[in-house]
Known about the structure:
The chain is an alpha/beta fold. The chain has a single domain (2-227), classed as TIM Barrel (Alpha-Beta Barrel). The chain contains 8 helices and 8 strands. Strands 1-2-3-4-5-6-7-8 form an 8-stranded parallel beta barrel, surrounded by 6 helices. The relative contact order is 0.17. This is N-(5'-phosphoribosyl)anthranilate isomerase. It catalyses: N-(5-phospho-beta-D-ribosyl)anthranilate = 1-(2-carboxyphenylamino)-1-deoxy-D-ribulose 5-phosphate. Its EC number is 5.3.1.24. It comes from Alkalibacillus salilacus.
Amino acid sequence: MKVQIYEIRSIKDAQKAVEAGADHLGIPYDQDPTYPGHLTCEEAMDVFESIPSNIVKIGLTISEDIHHIRQNLKTVMPNVLHLSGNIEAILPEEIERLKQDFKPLKIMQAIPVYADQDLASQKALDYVRRYEHVSDYFLIDTKSHSEDVIGATGTIHDWQIDRAIIESTDVPCIIAGGLSSENVQEAIRISRPYGVDSFTSTNEDNPIDEKHIKSIEKIRAFVEAAHNA
């Protein structure tokens, strides 16, 4: 069971996550960050360079402009690019060209799931079919109706939906959305994913610095719970 930890915003927090046993580290970045907590490309590069080679380094973008994403990748290229903006904004054909031009970059496409809708009322399976030939991973995450961005809600959705998605594709699926050390084992039991992701539940209760937000104790508890599921 792979454990993915978001949002890593500093070398110190990256070190905490590595020490606690995380397998994937996710770092949000942009040339000109406008979203809270996102790093500049230069800041992200410093964090990536501090992470051991056996850890998967994931760069998160919420950009819906493929040209903008290309410029970011020319400055700093992670192992995996996590596309977490409006899924309708970037076509699979554009992602395919991106992967060809930035080999060996891998893609993690976020699949939006609404917490207040059943599977039949959502487009999740349609998105899986459309994007699976260009995706190396799917991140199944809760989406707010009021935001184009997928994830970072801290809200649980129906894990049976995750299971249906996972069973529909050969792409490795990581599940997210309100997961914590208290509920991750049940989520794994129901959905049987490739991996699990945590952002909000592994943050400090009251971080005093927006670049240093992660709790090593909470990450360790999450990792142990996931690995013991």
